[in-house]
């Protein structure tokens, strides 16, 4: 009898058997939440659920008998790229701790559920998140700061009845600028005067982007000198103002110079400026609930011949 095919066939079944065991092992480590389906990259929770907590994977460190590296829930969570949740009526708040393990997350859908609020900085640990669908919830307000560090291609907000206030003016601006595909959505807000106002038609007084100005456009100093630059942020609501000087080598201090009714001024003092900072772009930002404005100063440092 010709048995030349047996090694290949046996090898196939051996690989299949090992894959099956590893697959079952992975699922057990994943600890897929109730009423959800999970695989290596997705968590799908499309069945109605009465729980009020965000669905999290449950797992534990699992060392192997041959001394290889253990598998833990952190490693598994970072491979999740998509989370889909629907009909979770008691899920009211999305917390930062709910999201922090999903560092590889790209798509988040929480739709037709009971979501009322999202904790500040909830998406700080999700740098790859570019698609968010929050349609059909109970959101009455939402801050643009949640999405400040993200590069959103789409943000779906339909079928939420927002409060007509300055807090959602940024949504109107994003619609005008056609950001995150908001311009194609019918979004509404309610107030004491009206029950169904299109956000695109919202008209709120004293609610605009900050205006910003700096004392220098270009700053030229000699190595070892000190320098002071002033940044003024104005507008209503009054913005927070600060200098962004990450990776600046020179010693620097920030000091609020004045905080009048509609102007917030802050000084940046550079001490003993070093030539390592030649060509550095000093950036000042002004932020309020409507959005952010910025201005930059180019630093030129002359150093004596060595």
Care to describe what's here?
By secondary structure, this protein is an alpha/beta fold. The protein folds into two domains: 37-55 and 72-201, Alpha-Beta Horseshoe (Leucine-rich repeat, LRR (right-handed beta-alpha superhelix)); 211-302, Immunoglobulins (Immunoglobulin-like, Sandwich). Helix content is 14%, strand content 30%. The chain has a six-stranded mixed β-sheet, with no helix packed on it. β1 (37-38) and β2 form a beta hairpin. The protein starts with 5 loop residues before the first helix and ends with a strand. The relative contact order is 0.09.
Gross morphology is flat
CATH superfamily of the largest domain: Ribonuclease Inhibitor
What is the CATH class name of the largest domain?
Alpha Beta
* Stretches with pLDDT under 50, minimum 5 residues: 1-29, 60-70
Strand order of the largest sheet: 1-2-3-5-7-8
What's the structural blueprint in terms of helices and strands?
Layout lengths: L5 H25 L6 E2 L3 E4 L27 H5 L4 E5 L6 E2 L1 H4 L7 E5 L5 E2 L12 E3 L20 E3 L4 E3 L5 H9 L10 E3 L6 E2 L12 E4 L3 E5 L4 E8 L5 E5 L6 E9 L3 E9 L9 E7 L4 E11 L4
Parallel strand pairs: 2-3, 3-5, 4-6, 5-7, 7-8, 9-10, 13-19
Antiparallel strand pairs: 1-2, 10-11, 12-14, 14-17, 15-18, 16-17, 18-19
């Amino acid at each position: 009898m010709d048995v030349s095919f047996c090694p290949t066939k046996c090898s196939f079944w051996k690989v299949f058997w090992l894959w099956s065991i590893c697959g079952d092992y992975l699922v057990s480590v994943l600890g897929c939440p109730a009423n959800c389906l999970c695989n290596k990259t997705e968590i799908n929770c499309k069945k109605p659920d009465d729980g009020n907590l965000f669905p999290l994977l449950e797992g534990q460190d699992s060392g192997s008998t041959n001394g290889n590296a253990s598998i833990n829930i952190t490693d598994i969570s970072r491979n999740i790229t998509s989370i889909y949740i629907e009909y979770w009526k008691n899920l009211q708040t999305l917390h930062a701790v709910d999201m922090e393990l999903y560092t590889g997350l790209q798509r988040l859908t929480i739709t037709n559920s009971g979501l009322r609020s999202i904790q500040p900085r909830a998406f700080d640990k999700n740098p790859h998140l570019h698609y968010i669908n929050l349609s059909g919830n109970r959101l009455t307000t939402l801050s643009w700061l949640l999405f400040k560090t993200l590069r959103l291609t789409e943000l779906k907000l339909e079928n939420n009845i927002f409060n007509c206030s300055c807090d959602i003016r940024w949504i109107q601006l994003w619609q005008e600028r056609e950001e995150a595909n908001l311009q194609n959505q019918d979004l509404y807000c309610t107030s004491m005067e009206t029950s169904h106002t299109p956000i695109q038609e919202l008209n709120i007084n004293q609610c605009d982007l900050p205006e910003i100005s700096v004392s220098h456009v270009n700053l030229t100093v000699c190595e070892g000198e000190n320098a002071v630059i002033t940044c003024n942020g104005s507008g209503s609501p009054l913005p927070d103002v600060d200098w962004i000087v990450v990776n600046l080598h020179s010693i620097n201090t920030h000091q609020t110079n004045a905080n009048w009714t509609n102007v917030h001024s802050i000084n940046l003092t550079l001490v003993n400026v070093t030539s390592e900072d030649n060509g550095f772009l000093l950036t000042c930002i002004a932020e309020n609930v409507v959005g952010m404005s910025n201005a930059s100063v180019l630093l030129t440092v002359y150093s004596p011949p060595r």
